[in-house]
Amino acid sequence: MPEQPQPLLSVRNLTVAFPSLHAVPPAVRGVSFDVGREKVGIIGESGSGKSTTGRAVMRLHPSATRITADRMEFQGENLLAVSERRMQAIRGHSMAMILQDPKYSLNPVMTVGEQIAETAILHEKLSRRAARRRTLDMLEKVHIRDPERVMGLYPHEVSGGMGQRIMISMMLIARPALIIADEPTSALDVSVRQQVLTILDELVGANSMGLLFISHDLNLVRSFCDRVLIMYSGRIVEELPANALDKATHPYTRGLLEALPSLLHPKDRLAVLRRDPAWAKT
Q1: What is the pTM for the complete model shown?
Q2: Distance between CA atoms of residues 135 and 117, nearest Å
Q3: Nearest to 256 by CA among 245, 269, 268
Q4: What is the CB-side half-sphere exposure of residue 136 using CA atoms within 13 A?
Q5: Which of 130, 137, 138, 162 has the most beta carbons within 10 angstroms of its beta carbon?
Q6: Tens digits of per-residue pLDDT, 103-116?
Q7: Residue 223: closest CA among 41, 13, 4
Q8: All domains of the chain in start order, with CATH
């Protein structure tokens, strides 16, 4: 049998706990998964631990957060053991994160062009002229018209869809191996959302990257990703190919699917999701 390629990211038994005056369970408990050069979706309700998992991989939680794992390796490097200085070098260069709303992620007092070029200058050590050329090229790749003009705009001068494309270009300009996208299209309308997903799909495929796609939209993940991880109460309760989501067996996943409205199979009343405390313990 041919040897299986090594995953870009390998996580085993990840636990994330936040400091508290009360005895509260960890936000993430015993989570294990791999991400190769593929699109892996994480779905679940708000509070299930999806974003907490993504931020733990990037080591973006406050220093008081307790993060433990049997293994959390990226390209063979132990992310829990590296220094913060080394982690800063990994972020943006080898691993990047696209956040939910560009309005809160872009610097309001810097032009779009300055912010994108800054990433290339910092991580790729490019000259300002070379970084400007790379920035124009990235803006064209995310289908922004008149990139010369857009480079001189400030974040408040662009639309939500354009702001998200700018965020994507900023995160991809250093050509990272892995992208963590945390609800990157939830603030966009349906038509713009599809455009952004198409762009993201093109860039990931063309550059052979890995993508960890965090979402609560089952239909979106089903059509966009290769594999799906379903999280409930800080745990992964099921994993399966995205195109086999309808064949899920865990009662939580079945409940999520049955609560979705469908034009092909309309229902007089949608099912109410029922939860079992035992799911959080298995």
Answers
A1: 0.89
A2: 6
A3: 245
A4: 8
A5: 138
A6: 777 889 999 999 99
A7: 41
A8: 1-87+180-186+209-282 (3.40.50.300)
